[in-house]
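In keeping with the milestone schedule agreed at the kick-off meeting, the structural modelling team has produced records for the first pair of proteins. Each record is given below as a sequence line and a structure-token line. The laboratory manager (R.T.) confirmed that both were archived under the project's standard naming scheme.
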Amino acid sequence: MSEYLEGLNPPQREAVEHTEGPLMIIAGAGSGKTRVLTYRIAHLIHAKGVDPFQILSLTFTNKAANEMKQRIEKLIGLEARNTWMGTFHSIFAKILRVEAHRLGYPSNFTIYDTEDSKSLIRTIVKEKRLDEKVYKPSTVLSRISGAKNRLISWEAYRKDNLVLADDEAAMKPKMGEIYQAYQQRLFRSSAMDFDDLLFNTNVLFRDHPEALNKYQQRFRYVMVDEFQDTNISQYLITKKLASVHQNICVVGDDAQSIYAFRGADIQNILNFEKDYPDLFVVKLEQNYRSTKNIVHTANSIIAKNKAQLKKSIWTHNKDGEPIELVKAASDNEEGRIVATTIFEQRNNHQLKNSDFAILYRTNSQSRSLEEALRKMNISYRIVGGLSFYQRKEIKDLMGYLRYLVNVSDEEAFKRVINYPKRGIGNTTVEKILVAAYEHDIGIWEVLNNSGSFLTGRAAIAVDDFATMIKSFQIATERKDAYEVASTVAKQSGILKELYEDKTIEGLNRYENVQELLNAIKEYVDSPENEDKSLGAFLQEIALLTDEDQKKEEMDNVTLMTIHSSKGLEFKYVFVVGLEEDLFPSQMMMQSREDLEEERRLFYVASTRAMEKLYLSYALTRYRYGRLLNCEPSRFLEELDPAHIKVNKRMGTSLSNSFRNRESEGSNGFVGLKKPAVRKSTTGKVHTPSPDFKPSNTNRLEAGMKVEHPKFGFGNVNKIEMEGTNRKAFIHFDNFGDKTLLLSFAKLRIVEE
């Protein structure tokens, strides 16, 4: 059995054999972390004689836990099944089932999923006669979840003046009342939500020392995987459990901490040594996954972060090809370049589709990539989300567009009749359908004669809906597809509904609808499409989505957000959309901490590649129905140019940001000589003021002084209206003249 140790490198073996006392294993990307964890548990049981029931191993996914159990079982047999191994939520739920009576719950308490929780919140908001548009269930649940992850009970929430002030500022002063009612209703229903499984375990160990002591004695060895992703609640529980025996082993990589939006606290791993002064640290720095060029490039990325645990990742693997930097004239061309490159590389090197992955910052970016892959007949799969045209918000707007073209489309009718909500309930919809069937007439005829089939408010609401559809139909006769779609998106209330949802999911849905409008605008702008009508566009999309539904091959190119890619690896990786305000995201540039998380996200994306890494950006991109000029991401300028070559075969010349460092290379490539100068008059990068907080720009006027988080200080020259958009022309001290849409720009008005 001991021969398994021979296959480990010295640091890996050290981590496996160091079994007593606090241990932190800093595991770089591709360094064999899972192997070390597996062997360490096997070593405890086989070589040290530890009872498997006394080992607690916490992970973040059931997949990771099951994979480790299977590996350990192969090493030591069925004894591996007796270890306490699973996700935080599954392990703590198991403990709470036994100890629930201490907290006043029965052992068979119900666990609510997200939809259950939203439904309960919706009921409470209705009962309290609050505006559901203000107190959206997803927004309220997100706020409650954040409080629980910080161990703030509803009682503490309602007494915290800072929290209450935040709610007042957000125009949601009743949030504390809803939180209280939500928890009380959960308790009366003998139910806990997912966050309660962590929160109540903390309460159990805080208020019932006899229960804590029981599990402290049971678990002699505590191990935590992906420690950089733990939140305060998770860390406090594991710290308490390990406080008697002190045999706590945490494994993680601060450079891959990318889940702050879920409550993960990178300080847990950065400050771990403060809690355990006698901590033993092992660094797994040998990368077994990637080529030297990829490893060195990833190192140059993460080196720019100040908050990190120092390590030097290296590899014995081959040098491999340089990282290829691809620029495209537009996001559409970016998609074509990626699809063409996959097609060529697959055929030239006898590769499979599954050897390729395309990673992006936001789900809305998948649209141009999907269309390009379809046209090249390359099968693909979307991970962590639906195909672009299968997403609910896209199907909702497409439902309206379909219904304008064909009022006999029953499925489109049922999708749009009461979305956004207009007081037409299921009973009314059923009456409309029954009337159409019984009188052998079309649904549209029923809608146009609602008074003959319906009464009261329902009849009025249906008549108003029919009138709206008629107005949209008139537009289809006079306007192109984009103008019609924009009108429908605004006047139907879809854009307003999505815009008011400020959760991460809500913002993604809003961006996705904007991306659909971008697709329609590109269709209309393309000289290849003579027919610009809505009907022609719908026909093309119907063919694309129909083709998508037929593809069920297992061998697919993988498309996913970078967040979804963590823990995976592919031979060839494309990281697309490396542009300022997209990656790094405009929402993640308000502080150094946010920007460093974005850089860690770039590091994670780069380290997914085994053999070849492509980085791409577009010079123009459709966003919010406008063709915008794009600036290459600052992250590209931080790369070590020794390992980068710029693909000069495609598209237009390099942007100004890279033009100064061109030099002709072999095979039609361009090498990078030195870091680029950012497009500004002085090259000085602005650091936002400590008190930076975006102002309400409704009162912005010409002559005012403002501060932008990226462009710094400037003076407003003039304000103009373009359609429904207000835009400001601002001269920035260090970045020259900029035109900003005030509905999206983050500006602090400087009071003088």
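The second protein of the pair:
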Amino acid sequence: MTQGHAPTEGLDPDALLAGLDAEQAQVATHTGGPLVVHAGAGTGKTRAMTHRIAYGAATGGIDPRHVLALTFTAKAAGEMRSRLRGLGVPMVQARTFHSAALRQLRYFWPRFAEGDFPQLITAKAGPVARAMAESGFEVERETVRDVAAEIEFAAVSLIGVEEYAAQAGHRELPEGIDAAAMVRIMTAYGELKSRGRLLDFEDVLLVLDGILGTREDIAAEIHQQYRHFVVDEFQDVSPLQFDLLMRWLGRRDSLCVVGDPAQTIYSFAGARDGFLLGLPNRLENVRTVSLVRNYRSCPPIVAAANRILAHTGRKPLVLQPVRSGGGPVRYTEYPDDEAEAMGVAEAVAGQIAAGRRAGDIAVLFRTNGQSRAFEEALSRRGISYVLRGGERFFARREVKEAIAVLRANQRSVPGTTPLSEAVRELVAGVGWTTSAPTAGGRVRERWESLSALVDLADEMQAEHELPVPLSAFVVELDDRREHQFAPAVDGVTLASVHAAKGLEWPVVYLVGLSEGLLPISYARSPGQIAEERRLFYVALTRARDEVELSWSLARQRSQVNRRRPSRFVQETRVPGPGSTGHTAPAPRPRARRELRCTNCNRVLDTPAQKALGRCEECAGPVDRAVFDRLVAWRAEQAEVERVPAYMVCTESTLELIARLRPTAQRELALVPGIGPVKLERYGTRLLEVLAG
């Protein structure tokens, strides 16, 4: 970073370096040319990146108004903006690739196109389902999801429809769909977008990339605005994103990329760590710095992570633990999936009873389909949870209501009133109470959403000695809503490992560690197994203080034991070449507890029976009139949403509702097939239909 503008006032270069380790300081003080930072898990990469920007501003090497910091998630972008504000450089633009591209495309649209800006497709399921139906294919939910993912892969890999058939031979295509069929569906999807003047998020990148390659005047304006680039998680960059980044960069060389090849877990979606590893061959005078000091996890967890990396076939970064203490990695074997879910819920309850916050605990799994058993087990114990990947925080009704009240009163609250006090009083008007409700389900979720706003106000006020104006809090909420940077909600996090990337918790339960689940059954080639191993490494390194690995020997109690523990479990136990660490203890089985009908004491076997604690006989027969009303409601709702009926509710779920006839939200929440999102969206109406 060469001297290019006046140093930003109020920034002390020496103070900015004081809290950095030697490698982080090398990143912060790097001058001139591109910089590649290999950052292992928990090594403080965000700290290094933000201090680099602030140090450059303090010394005159960087004008923060001309910096574009790029991330892959809204949460990461929000965290970076927050840290930069704290360092005294709030004017830096920190956005996701898609957010930055969409902002530029909207701005320049009138310059190269006619008409209003197209409508954005925020969820592909509906349009892809219609394209499949138009192409003569049966529309099933799982197939729609897989076809949508394949369409995204082709777009971000810069593979056109004409080229796809020739290049799709090595792909694991959706069941029942071959390369020729995918071409027909992709063509129909493209025509559907053209007819409806629609753009999906990949189109945003593609269109902007094309414009910057053909319109020198527009490219020149962007080059004038953005002169310094920082890119996080560079191992996840796709060919499309890399191409767009190179167009943004132009002939400049002020580029800092940060990533870890050991955390490349999105290659199925087009991500390639080759851009991170190969950047020195693409640009001149590239310097490389490695961050290896792990500040997140205790030594036993770091040792287990290093043992996993020893099996990757590459020369990995060997993490060096900075913290001390910590107990050994725990291993637990269960007879079946239900026993595992109940055992983990029991362990979580023990953690909370011992004083641990629910928000400090995460249960991570390989696929989203594994979450239901853990949702039910936690609900039975009255433990609140947050399903990561569910409904967006700022789309919740109670959050919208609360923000509207705060906005309406931002000028009437006296400036001498502490922010915490003002927010508590106003949010109480939309139903928040100082004590958590005893009820679960939607009532508890609503309270937790409002409490998240109160907690955010507390944090914001704690950072200032004088009262923070309510108007400043409203601005903060607007910024967070724009970038989908939600405040934390207190509850046990349930998430797939992919959704947990970039997050961390004091306690992590890594579940379902059987062959066929992790690694997943369709991972057969060495490259696919290597990616599954990296996924396991990412999951393991989400934990700060404690981690428990568990697996079950069978899916159901009645099945003969035929599962084997994941090979990755063994790799954490036996030290690999050149690695050190303790040997983990042998597994300890936990007994499975039978559930019985609350009316007749019969053992409950099926998920439907366990949902409300009754067998079918005691639950009552299917009420055909109620079932018919539910089917009619589903058809109307599907037409309104323009989606297939099964995406609203499956017939099996409607039949179960008609049999169990729940009368309250908390009972409806226990029905398999009704998750938090559907409960929020349809719960009130479903209960009205049930009531006739």
